[in-house]
Each structure stands twice: as C-alpha cells, then as structure tokens.
Amino acid sequence: xxxxxxxxxxxxxxxxxxxxxxxxxxxxxxxxxxxxxxxxxxxxxxxxxxxxxxxxxxxxxxxxxxxxxxxxxxxxxxxxxxxxxxxxxxxxxxxxxxxxxxxxxxxxxxxxxxxxxxxxxxxxxxxxxxxxxxxxxxxxxxxxxxxxxxxxxxxxxxxxxxxxxxxxxxxxxxxxxxxxxxxxxxxxxxxxxxxxxxxxxxxxxxxxxxxxxxxxxxxxxxxxxxxxxxxxxxxxxxxxxxxxxxxxxxxxxxxxxxxxxxxxxxxxxxxxxxxxxxxxxxxxxxxxxxxxxxxxxxxxxxxxxxxxxxxxxxxxxxxxxxxxxxxxxxxxxxxxxxxxxxxxxxxxxxxxxxxxxxxxxxxx
Length: 364
What we know:
two-stranded antiparallel sheet, 4 strands, mainly alpha
C-alpha cells in the first residue's frame, strides 16, 4: 500500500483552501496530521486505512477551515494513490457519516465499512505496475532476495527464520513470477507458491476452499497481465510481499512457532486484502474471512498436538541433546500422522458430498 506524507496532505489542503503551500502550513496543525498518518500505517487494508484517516482528520480538526472538505479530499487522494475510486453519491449519506464521526457516535471501523461499500478498484495495466515497482525498488535499497541475506528483522536474519517448506514456497513464487515474465515477486506469486507447494496446511486449506493454481493464474493475467521480458538472476520482492513476510514473522512469534511456516505466509497474504493476492482470494473464495477461520482452526489443532508432545517430553535444565532430538523426531512423526488424518477427512468429506449429489443420505 502507498501512503500519504504530511506534505501530500498539505498539498491537498492548499488546493481545497485555495491558498499557497506556505499559508497551508500556517493553517494546519501538522502534529495532529502526523498522528493520524502514523495511525493509518498501523492498519491493514485500503478501506480500513482510509476509515482511520477519515475519522482521525474529522475528529482532530487539523485544518482551520473547511476541515471536513479537506479530510474527504485527503481520503480521496489516498484512495486514488492506491488505484481505487471512492463513490460519494449520495452526498447526504457521507454528511450523515461525518456528523456521526464528529459527535463520536461512529468509530473508524464504521467509517472503514462505509468506505469499503463504496470502493471500486481500478484495473491495473502491466506497464503501470512495472513502472510503479521500478520507482519503489529504486528507492528501496534493502531489496529482499534469498541469495543475499540483507534484511534483518529485530536483529534476526529473516532467511534463518523460514522453515524448509516456507523456503520452497519462496522459490516456487520466484518461478511463477518468471513464468509471467514479471520482474518482481508480489503477493499473487506468493499465493501461487503456496498452492503449488502442495503439502502444507496452507495448501490444503486453499485446495479445500476451491482455490486452484489455474484459476489464480487466470486472474493474475486479468488483473496485471504478463510482463515484457523474463527477469535474470534474483527477482526482487515488492513492498507488499515484504510486508507479508514481516506479518508472517510476527504471527509465527505470537503463536510460539520456532519458524515461519507456509501457513504464516498465507495469513500475511490474507491480511493484505488490497494486494493482488488478497484480491484474488476474495474473488475465488465465497468468504475470505472463512478462509482465515479454516486456516486458523487447522493451525490451532496442529499447535495443540505439538504442545502435547512437547509437554510429554518437558526438557529440564540438564536435558540432553538426545531428549531434544527425540522431541523433534516425535513432533515430525506426529505431523505426518496429522497430515494423513487430514487427507482421510478430506476424502470422507468428498465421498459424503458425492453421495448427497446422488440423493443418498450419507448418515442413513
């Protein structure tokens, strides 16, 4: 997602108030504007971020005149920057929302829901996206690759935090990007990598909700198109993809996982609904929140099972490496059993559906 800075907001204010940039500075509470912009960066999703921005600017009143008009104009600029349009008709509904925000009756969540209902994403041309990425990557000196471990997260090398299946997802995502002749790896390529990896919880959940590689590839071409030429060497990751990695890393730590797994990467893709990967899941799945719930249910089940094994082999201060290795061996064996159990459940579910389609009650 692309964000506005204080000077972007001042430029909008100057246009609305029909004054010079210098006058706009004098007529604006810059500290209040910066607080709102900082809050926007802590949220995920274009509609949610725009809701935080609108509610924050209306309530803090940083502009000395036409505050509401400027606030709406800033939100329109923010939405447009992220290749979307916000429909303001009928205006009476917008005025009512602004009244409720100003009085404290409507929260930023309600503002976000209102904006989401009127948000229209513009189709992105391949040339436009390539140019945007070129500029972003030129400005981003810490471009992430998995050949050179340049990026650090809170003092830990990111590459070392990825499990083998998660690293395979990254490799597959790079291969998918090359297949489209794209000069970058985005969330759409990560989604394809998660599907084609095939063995993880993430792959099974995506398969269970009917999200397949051919369907995703078709939408990638529809939304973005193909590139002009295949990239050579390591392909850089987009800022959205890197945000997905960071979100996945945070989720793995919050859940007490030793490594970032494919399911954490899928949580990152699901978190960014305005990324191409998130848009594709929204189009292909009946309910993106249902996808997340199904994923978290399977993750919780797996985590509880692993915790049970770990509890059975609690390591004392003098535990040997043999005990440590035994614990990991048992967890590996348990995961294999859980995978087989999930496959059997899926086969049974498919069989029950088949019986129902032939008007046979599977419980009779």
